[in-house]
Specification:
Length: 253
């Protein structure tokens, strides 16, 4: 005898099926290819990008490419190694590129990390000197662990009127996870050429676990008036189980 379906009938009276609009522009971003000038090839590509008023800035672990927003024509292309070379980091070991466009100040904010699983690990940050993403940048690097026991991975980048935020995963060199870090940087001061940062630590403690893969963690922050609200989502899975933990905290500034 079939089991009756007692679930409530979905309310679809006020729903209208609308097709997604067609793309206004359609062209290739950055190509997954070797670094310009060196032939070095990073795998995986770790794609990222941002759209400005008249330009598109696309990034891979290999090259950074700036395109005309309307036509898709290439304006410039530089290797990730050349872009960050002024900081003295090993360009072949720069990865996880990030970029956001600030339409209020017409600046491009970029980030990355370098030297994974190494005592020379660095968190990288840059801001364009003008509205042009293919122009000059002020570049900075942070040592995520002066004790040289841990390294930084997978930065997440955001900003508002007063602050730039960078959340990073931290890992023990040659080992498992440890407490993550969250950088809050004075944005107006940064635009003026001065770096003033507050570092939050102890956000999460990974414990070594057998047969469990600790996947990516994501930090999302928003601001209401003077109160920041931050959420850290961590996903775990193995062959039999998967679950998500959500941590939250707030601070005033």
């Amino acid at each position: 005898m079939p089991i009756p379906d007692n679930r409530p009938t979905p309310n679809i009276i006020n729903r209208t099926a609308v097709l997604s609009p067609a793309p206004v522009f359609n062209y290739e971003g950055a190509t997954d290819e070797a670094q310009v000038g060196s032939g070095f090839f990073n795998i995986p590509p770790d794609t990222y990008g941002a759209v400005g008023l008249d330009k598109v800035f696309t990034q891979l672990n290999n090259n950074y490419r700036v395109l005309n927003k309307t036509t898709g024509a290439e304006i410039s292309k530089v290797s990730i190694e050349t872009f960050w070379n002024a900081l003295g980091v090993d360009g072949d070991n720069v990865f996880d590129p990030r970029v956001v466009y600030d339409p209020y100040n017409n600046r491009w904010i970029v980030g990355a990390v370098s030297n994974g699983n190494n005592a020379a690990s660095r968190v990288l940050l840059g801001i364009s000197q003008t509205h042009d993403p293919s122009g000059n940048y002020n570049l900075y690097s942070f040592d995520p662990d002066p004790g040289t026991a841990n390294w930084a991975d997978f930065p997440m980048l955001g900003f508002n009127t007063n602050w730039i935020a960078i959340g990073i995963n931290m890992f023990v060199i040659g080992g498992g996870g440890t407490t993550n870090r969250f950088y809050v940087i004075d944005y107006p001061a940064l635009r003026g050429g001065t770096v003033t940062a507050t570092v939050f630590t102890g956000l999460l403690l990974y414990t070594p676990c057998r047969n469990i893969f600790c996947n990516r963690s994501y930090i999302i922050c928003s601001k209401s008036h003077k109160q920041w609200w931050c959420y850290l989502q961590v996903k775990y899975n193995n062959r039999h189980t998967s679950f998500t933990c959500l941590y939250s905290w707030s601070f005033t500034n």
